[in-house]
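If your schedule permits, I should be very grateful for your opinion on a structural question. I have a record of one protein: its chain in single-letter code and its fold written as C-alpha cells. Kindly check, if you would, that the fold set down in the C-alpha cells agrees with what the sequence suggests. I remain grateful for any guidance, and I place the record below:

***
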Amino acid sequence: MISRIEVLLRKLKRIFSRSDWTIRLLRLAKLEKHTTEPGLMMVQIDGLSMTQFNRALQKGNLPFLKKLLDKEHYILRSFYSGLPSNTPAVQAELFYGVKGCVPAFCFFDRSSGRVVKMLDAAFVEGFEKRLKSKGAGLLAGGSAYSDIFTGSARESHCCWARIGWDGVLWAANPLVFPFLVVLYADIFIRTLVLVIIEFFLAVFECVRGTLKGRLFFRELELVWQRSLVCIFLREFITAGACMDIMRGVPVIHLNFLGYDEQAHGRGPSSAFAHWSLRGIDEAIKRIYNVIKQSPNRHYDLWVYSDHGQAKTIPYLVKYGRTIEEAVQELFAGDAFVTAMGPLGHIYVKKDLRDIHAYAKKLVTELNIPLVLTKEEDRVFAWSQKGCFIFPDEAQKIFGADHPFLEEIKEDLLRVCLHPDAGEFVIAGWCEGATAISFPLEYGSHAGMGPEETHAFTFLPMDAPVEVENNKKYLRPMDLRHTVQHFLNKEMLGPPDTSGQGVASKNLTLMSYNVHGCAGMDGCISTERIARVIARYNPDIIALQELDVGRLRSGKIDQAEMIARKLEMKFHFYPAFRWKDEQYGNAILSRYPMALIKSGPLPNLTYRGRPYEPRGALWVSVEFAGKKIQVFNTHLSLWPHERVLQVEALLSEQWLQHPDCQGPVILCGDFNAFPHSTVYRKICRKLQDSQAVLVGHRPKSTWSGHYPVGRIDYVFVNDNFHVYSITVPRTDLEKIASDHLPLITQFDSINL
C-alpha cells in the first residue's frame, strides 16, 4: 500500500512538472517509452581545483555535494587536466580523444596566418570540424551547454562552436512565451533578486578593489560578469538541462563558468569566488532532483572540474609593463606574443642566430619564470636556475613532489612541438618561483603548476572507472573511456566469479526483496536491481519476489538476467505458477553451490480459496573449505499461516535436517516484526544477525523510501561471527524496490 501511494505521488509530480509542460509547449522531441539504456548528466565546474573543492566542502559552500559524498556513496578522485590546463584542451581530449589539440588558449594559427582565441566562434567551429573528422564526439545524440566544443551533441546551447540556443526558442510559437513566464515565475523572480544582490555586491567590491590600487576598468568588467555568468547563464542552462532529463536525452554535458570567472578576477581562494559555488551547488541539487523524477530513463549525475586555478600576480602589476611591451622591446619589434593566462608563445619574425641567448634574456631581463625552446628534436628549458634539457631534467624544473610529473613531461613536450607553437614557449610558473600570469588576473590556469593541473572527479561509487597504468588519478582520456563504458552499459564491475583463489576471509550475504524489479517510480528494471547489488559486491545473494515469464514484467527471466549481469551462479524456485508465468525466490553465489532442496511451505485457504503460495530454497555453498547451508524464503502476510510455515522450516525437513549440523543461514522476507510469534520461534534456534552485533542499532528495511518496519532478516547459528550490518539508503536503493537490501558480513565461520 505504501509503495502504491508513493508511485501515485510520483505520477502526480510528473503531471504537474513544469519541465514536462515546457517540453509540450515548445513541442520538443522526447522519449515516450521507458528504456533500459542508461542516461548520463555530466556537470563541469570550470576552474575548481581539488584544493579549493575540499576547502569549499569544509566551509559549507557545497552542502549538496557534501551530502552526496556522505550519504550517496560518491567518490572523490584526483583529475589531471593535461596540458595546456585549459577548457579547450580538456574538452578536446574528453570529447574526441585528442590530447594537446591546442598549444594555448590564444595562439598564432599558421594555416590562416592570424592570431586566434578559443573564444572566436567561427574559428572554434572550424577547429571542431577537424576534430570530428577523427570520429564522432562523446556527446553524439545528446546535448551540450556552455562548452567550448559541442562534442558532436545533437543539440548545443551557448557553446562557442555553435553560439545560441540551437534554434529551439526561435522555432517556438511566440504565443507560448507568456505561459512560460507564468510557469517559471518563481525562477524569474529569484533570478532578478539574485541579480540585484550580485550587482550591489559587485559594485561594492569594485570600489574596494579600486581603492586597493587595482585597475578601475578591470574592476568594472567584473560587475557585469557576476550578473551575466554567475546568475543568468547558470539559471538558463540549468533549466535547459532539466528539460533534457525529462525528455530522456541520453547524455547531457553542462559547464558552470561562474567560479572560474570570479577566480580569475579575485583569486581562486577569494570569498567572492567561493560565494559563486553556493549557486552552482544549488543548481546541481535542482538537476539531481529532476533526475529522480525522470520518467523513461535512469540517469547518473557525474560532477568534475576540467582544471584548477593558481593564485598569481599579474605581470603588469609586478613589473609595471605588459608582457607584450617587454617582448617588443627585447626583440626590437621583430616578435609578438600571445598569452592568455600563465602559458604563452613568442613568435619571432626573423631568423635568430642564438636562440639560447634570447631565452636567457627572457628569464633574466624580462623575469619570465620559465622559457622553453626547441632545437631539432630536443627541447631546452630556461629558468633562474639555469638551462636544462627537457624532459630528462624535468624534476629540476617542476620539483620532485609535483603530483603529475611523469604526465607533465609528455604533455609539455607535445605543447612545445605543436605546429602552431611559438619559437619560445613562456610559462608563469616553475618550481621555486612566484607564480605570475601574463594578462591582468589574480587567478590563472593553462600552465603546469600543481594547482592548475590538479582538478577532481566526483562520481558514484559504482562508476566503471577506467584508469591507464593503474594511476591513482584520472585524466580526460580516462574519463572519456569511463563514459563510453557507462553508456555501453558496461558499468556493473562484477566481482570475481571463479570462486577460486579468493584471499578474503570475510563472507558477505545480501537479502533483498526486489518487488518484481518494480521500483517506486513505477518502472521495472533488472538493470537497476543488478546495479544495487553490484555496489556492495556480496558473495551470496538471497532474492525474493522475482518474475519469470510474467506478462507484467515483459516475460523476461529476472533471476537469469540479474545473475548474468553479475556473472554469478543461481538457483530459482517458483513458489507461484500460472500457465507459463512464475514468481518466486532465488539464491546467487560467486562460490560453488549445490541445490539441496526447494519446495512449498504450508498453504491455508480462505472460503475455499488458497492464500498466495509460499516456498523455500535451500543450497549448500562452498566457502574456504566449509559447506554453508543457506535457506531463502518469503513468508505469508497472514499471521496464522506464517506460524505454520516457520514451524515447517524449523522441522527435520529443513533446518533440523542432519546436513544442517554446520554453519546455517536462514534469510529472506518474513513479513513479521521483531517480538512477533514467528520471530520468537526462530530466535529459539537461531540468532538475529542485527540483534547480536554489538553496538549496532537494528535498521528497518521496509518500505524502501520511508522504512518503518523490520521484516527482512538474516538469521544465523553459533558458527558465525557477525562483523558488520549494512542497510544502504541512497537514492538508488530507495527507488529500486519497496524494500531496502540487508547486507551482513561475517569475519569468521566455525565448523
About this structure: The chain has 24 helices and 34 strands. The chain has a mean pLDDT of 89.
